[in-house]
Design brief:
two-stranded antiparallel sheet, globular, Fic-like fold, mainly alpha
């Protein structure tokens, strides 16, 4: 049975697992805030490091990307299906390589009046693209939000705590997945950052 055939209630966490995940997420968030990951390359290895630290002792697939011979062929999340398992490594490499190129260009021009908005756009875009690919069996949202924070902190900004109405957040992600328009998600997170949500 593949993961997409497993009912959602089977994929839920026990209270003990949730407590462990929360503890790990808080510790990782503090490390991101301190800039502990700011010198790391935005690459699959970093994503695996984050996922492994987050899911250590919670899931046996902690830090393991779906690929040929490992993981579910496709995963279902909301109304969407992930990229095929065999395509994940290449798509993830391509996405993160594009992110590194955009970031290098941005970091070379810190005086640009659009610097902060460009950094936010890159971080949010990477976050949404990683979720769309769904490289891990579960935990893609938490891991990609940590990556978003690393990008922001590395650009000299602060993390954005994604503390919004879950449905509004999911609606914005779904809009991106359906229309390839990142602006609603960007707008939502900008409102969160400015304290309007």
């Amino acid at each position: 049975m593949t993961l997409e055939e497993v009912p959602d209630h089977v994929r839920q966490y026990t209270p003990e697992e949730e407590e462990t995940l929360t503890r790990h997420l808080l510790a990782l968030t503090e490390k991101v805030d301190r800039g502990d990951f700011s010198n790391e390359s935005i690459a699959p290895r970093l994503l695996c490091t984050l996922h492994r630290a987050l899911f250590d002792s919670v899931r046996d697939h902690a830090g393991k990307i779906r690929k040929r011979g490992f993981g579910s062929e496709r995963l279902t999340f909301g109304p969407h299906r992930s990229d095929a398992r065999d395509d994940v490594p290449e798509k993830l490499d391509k996405t993160l390589e594009e992110a590194r190129t955009m970031l290098a260009s941005l970091l070379a021009r810190p005086e640009d009046p659009t610097y902060e908005m460009c950094a936010l756009h890159i971080a949010v875009w990477v976050h949404a693209k990683v979720i769309r690919i769904h490289p891990f069996e579960d935990g893609n949202g938490r891991t990609s939000r940590l990556l978003m924070g690393i990008i922001l902190v590395g650009a000299g900004l602060r993390q954005i705590p994604v503390e919004v109405c879950k449905q509004e957040y999911l609606d914005c992600l779904n809009h991106y997945f359906n229309e390839d328009e990142i602006e609603p998600l960007l707008d939502l997170l900008l409102r969160v950052d400015l304290g309007y949500v």
